[in-house]
Amino acid sequence: MQIQVNGEQREIASGATVAQLIDELQFDPRYLAVELNRELVPRAEHGGQRLAEGDKLEVVTLVGGG
Question: Considering the domain 2-61 in this protein, what is its CATH number?
Fold first, then answer.
């Protein structure tokens, strides 16, 4: 199915969760925030939040520095 991640179209498996997408993108879930259709998805819900055709996600990674 087709979703949009950070403004880019992406093909993912039907029934995929936010956690599975994060794993596929090779992001460390400890250092990111996920917005699904303009709603923040708490980290504790990533594993249970299923994605649907046409969903729009913004995934923001946190970067430290000095």
Answer: 3.10.20.30
